[in-house]
Amino acid sequence: MLDVLVIGGGNAALCAALCAREAGASVMLLEASPRAWRGGNSQHTRNLRCMHDAPQDVLVEAYPEEEYWRDLLAVTGGQTNEHLARLVIRASSSCRGWMRKHGVHFQPPLSGALHVARTNAFFMGGGKALVNAYYRSAERLGVEIRYDSPVHGLEVRDGRFLAAFTESERIEARACVLAAGGFESNREWLREAWGRNERGEWPADNFLIRGTRYNQGTLLRHMFDEHRADEIGDPTQAHMVAIDARAPLYDGGICTRIDCVSLGVVVNREAHRFYDEGEDFWPKRYAIWGRLLAGQPGQTAYSIIDSKAVGRFMPPVFPGHRASTLPELARKLDLDVDVFMQTLGSYNAACRIGTFDHTRLDDCHTENIEPPKTHWALPLDTPPYYGYPLRPGVTFTYQGLLTDDTAAVHFGGVASDNLFVAGEMMAGNVLGKGYTAGIGMSIGTAFGRIAGTNAAAAAHNPANRMEASHAAA
C-alpha cells in the first residue's frame, strides 16, 4: 500500500511530498490542474518572509522573532494562534538551506520591491521557478505525480484517513496530507459568505481572482459537511488586495496589483475618498485595500496620482489612464467632474508638506479633512495625472481546518493520527485576518514540511508523529 498521499500541487503540497519522501515514505501527489497550470497560487508568488537575527545571504540587517511577531499581530488584530504563528516564524529562519537543496535559488530584491530587503527573501525567477524546481526534485526522488486529478471526497473513519476518491479511482494510503488550497475560485461559496450588501449588490460578483481557477474548495466543503472536521476562520476573510479592474478573472498574479495607493489618493465611483492612503508602509497594509474596495459601491475605486509619483512604485501590467488636467482625468474615468474636483481640491488644500520620504513614515500629512492622510501627503498638482481603476483581487481564503503544531486535522477536538493539513487549507490558524508580504509562503513551507514529515512517520508508526513535528520545524 502507498505510504503517503498528498492532495494538492502548490508550495505546501510539494514541501509535504518532498519531506515525506526524504523520510523514506512512498509518496503520490495529486494535482487538480493540468501540468501547464501546476503549482496553484504558489506560481504567482515572489518571496518568503524570513526571521533572521543578523544579515544572511540575500537578507540585510536583522528581522528578529519579536519584530516579525509584532508585524503579524498588527495585521491580524490579534486574530492568530500565537503558538502556531511563532512556530512558522522560527521555521522561516532555517528553511532556505532545505529549499536550496531542492533547487530553489534566491536573489536580492529588485529595485522598487517595496522596501522588503530586510524581511523577505526573493525567489530567482519567482514562484513559477520555485514550483518547477520542487517538481523536478520530487520527480528525481521518485514521488509519483498525477495531473488532472481533482479529489472530490475522502473515506475517513473515526478520524482516520482510509482513501481518497478521484473521478476514476479509490486511492488508499497509510497517511494523507491535505494541501488543496482554499475556495477563492468558487463564486457560489464567495456569494454565500459575503451575501448582499445594503445597496442590494452581491459584492463577490465583482471580485477578481488573482490566482488559480482550480481552488474550488471541494475538499474543504467535503471535510466540513461530510466529516464534521473542526473549522477555523471567517469565510469573508482572505488575502484580498487592490488590483487593476482590467485584470483577467483568474491568474492575473502579482503584476495586476496596484502599488501606488500610498502615493496619491483613492476615490470611489462617487468620486469620494474613503480611507487613509498613508496609514502605513505598503508591504504591511496593502492587503487591507481589497476589503475596503469590497465595501464601496460597485466594489470599484480609482487610484489617482500625479507625475511626482512616477518611478516610486512597481509599475503594473496595465498603464494608467493619463490626462493633462484633473477634469480630463475625471471624464476618462467616468467620474462626476464637479465632485471629483471638490474632493481633490479639499485634499490638496489640506496637505501639510514636510520632508517627503516614502521609505519611512514621514511628516507629510493632511489637516482638517476626513479621512486624513497621515503620511506621504503631497498635493496632486503636477501633470500629467494618472488614474488606475481598482477592484478587489482575492488571492486565498482563510476559512479552513483547525490544526495544531503537528499539522493534524482535528475531529471533535481530537487530532487524527494519519490525516494532516498544510497551506491555504489551514492558514486561518495563523491569519485570522489581514496579511503581510510573504507570510503565506512561510506558513505553507513550515506546515508543508511538518505535515509531510509527520505523515511519513504516521505511515510507519503513529507514535512518531509528535517527535517528527519538531524535527520538521
What does this structure look like?
The chain is of the alpha+beta class. The chain has two domains: 4-182 and 217-231 and 398-472, FAD/NAD(P)-binding domain (3-Layer(bba) Sandwich), CATH 3.50.50; 239-393, Flavocytochrome C3, Chain A, domain 1. The protein has 13 helices and 22 strands. It has helices spanning 11-22, 65-76, 82-92, 95-101, 126-141, 187-194, 218-225, 282-285, 288-294, 326-332, 337-350, 439-460, 465-472, and strands at 4-7, 27-30, 47-49, 106-107, 120-123, 144-146, 153-157, 160-165, 170-172, 175-178, 208-209, 231-232, 238-244, 265-268, 301-306, 321-323, 351-352, 365-366, 385-397, 400-401, 408-411, 414-421. Helix 10 (326-332) packs across helix 11. Keywords: FAD, Flavoprotein, Oxidoreductase. GO terms for molecular function: oxidoreductase activity. Its cofactor is FAD. Residues 3-432 form the FAD-dependent oxidoreductase 2 FAD-binding domain.
User: Average pLDDT across residues?
Assistant: 94
Binned strand content: 15-25%
Q: What's the number of domains?
A: 2
State the shape.
globular
Class derived from helix and strand content: alpha+beta
Task: Give a short account of the largest sheet.
Answer: 6 strands, mixed
Which second-level CATH architecture of the largest domain applies?
3-Layer(bba) Sandwich
Counting DSSP E segments of at least 2 residues, the number of strands comes to: 22
What is the CA–CA distance across the termini?
Answer: 28 Å
What proportion of the residues is helical, as a percent range?
25-40%
Low-confidence stretches: 464-473
Write out the CATH superfamily name of the largest domain.
FAD/NAD(P)-binding domain
| Radius of gyration, CA atoms, in whole angstroms | 23 Å
CATH class of the largest domain: Alpha Beta
| Strands side by side in the biggest sheet | 6-2-1-10-22-21
Q: What is the CATH T-level topology of the largest domain?
A: FAD/NAD(P)-binding domain
- The helix count comes to 13
Cofactor: FAD
Protein name: FAD-dependent tricarballylate dehydrogenase TcuA
Keywords: FAD, Flavoprotein, Oxidoreductase
GO molecular function, one term: oxidoreductase activity
